[in-house]
From TrEMBL:
GO terms for cellular component: MLL3/4 complex. It comes from Ciona savignyi. Its EC number is 2.1.1.364. PROSITE patterns: FYRC (PS51543), FYRN (PS51542), POST_SET (PS50868), SET (PS50280). The lineage of its organism: Eukaryota, Metazoa, Chordata, Tunicata, Ascidiacea. This is [histone H3]-lysine(4) N-methyltransferase. Keywords: Chromatin regulator, Metal-binding, Methyltransferase, Nucleus, Phosphoprotein, Repeat, S-adenosyl-L-methionine, Transcription, Transcription regulation, Transferase, Zinc, Zinc-finger. It catalyses: L-lysyl(4)-[histone H3] + S-adenosyl-L-methionine = N(6)-methyl-L-lysyl(4)-[histone H3] + S-adenosyl-L-homocysteine + H(+). Its main location: nucleus. GO terms for molecular function: histone H3K4 monomethyltransferase activity; transcription coactivator activity; zinc ion binding. SMART domains: FYRC, FYRN, PostSET, SET.
Length: 268
């Protein structure tokens, strides 16, 4: 797997693509380029064939994804420059682009292939996507609960800092942070309240008449979801916000049970 991917693309054996691009001789015509990926000597084998004018069929192949494309693009650029046509910039086009491997649709499907995690150097753009529905793995016992429990003798190391932090959490009551935000545990500071709500915000319900709004903000080059109240909230009042799901057809409707006076009856 180490040779069948790069940082920006995956090279699956058996992949085929067809591209309509400029002819290498006649700058006012286009021809069909058929590309495919195979395997040779344990390495990926890239091949592209096309037919042009009286020369007939031409095949470019090699272990490098840019094999043949670099020379072809440079010839096209020089030919168009001689005829004073719109300039072509070969340095911005790569073999991966012309094979279609960097197209978002293709990349999303390739990233859903089994064992794709073995591509250590590849930079994932979409993560594991359920585009391809794979069959479930056969469990020999028929149930996950009947699988034997594997014991690990490795102990988690405890440092002085981690011990001090745990003692501080226990003394301030933050150790009970796994409980609900509506519990009656004593809290010493606002920062500890925010720390306790780090996971509980995921369980805020939907309402057609919400007392909060959800906003996506940029913070330290990452997108964060911020829950903001839109009115004064009474003590013990449940927090809620509008999920704003996309509208869907009747068969995929999700009923809304918020009970508000202006309830839309459907969440989507």
């Amino acid at each position: 797997m180490a040779l069948f991917h790069s940082k920006s693309a995956i090279y699956p054996v058996g992949y085929k693509a067809t591209r309509i691009y400029w002819d290498s001789i006649n700058t006012r015509k286009r021809c069909i380029y058929e590309s495919w990926i195979g395997e040779k000597d344990g390495k990926p084998w890239f091949a592209t064939s096309y037919s042009t004018g009286s020369i007939g069929e031409i095949t470019m192949c090699g272990h490098d994804v840019n094999e043949g494309w670099t020379e072809l693009l440079n010839n096209l650029s020089n030919l168009r420059a001689q005829q004073r046509m719109l300039k072509l910039f070969p340095k911005y086009l790569t073999g991966e682009n012309l094979f279609g491997l960097t197209a978002p649709v293709v990349a999303r499907i390739l990233e859903s292939l089994p064992n794709i995690e073995l591509c250590a150097n590849y930079k994932f753009r979409f993560g594991r996507s359920p585009v391809l529905e794979l069959p479930l793995a056969v469990n020999p016992t028929g149930s996950a609960r009947s699988e034997p429990h594997v014991k690990h003798n490795r102990k988690k190391p405890h440092t002085l800092i981690s011990n001090l932090i745990s003692e501080y959490y226990e003394s301030t009551g933050i150790a009970d942070a796994a409980s609900s935000i509506y519990g009656k545990h004593f809290v010493h500071s606002k920062s500890s309240q925010y720390r306790r709500m780090k996971l509980d915000w995921r369980y805020i319900n939907h309402s057609c008449n919400p007392n909060c709004v959800a906003e996506v903000v940029n913070f330290e080059k990452e997108k964060k979801i911020m829950i903001i109240s839109n009115r004064h909230i009474l003590s013990g009042e449940e927090l809620n916000y509008d999920y704003k799901f996309d509208f869907e057809e009747e068969g995929n409707k999700i009923p809304c049970l918020c009970g508000a006076l202006n309830c839309r009856k459907w969440m989507n």
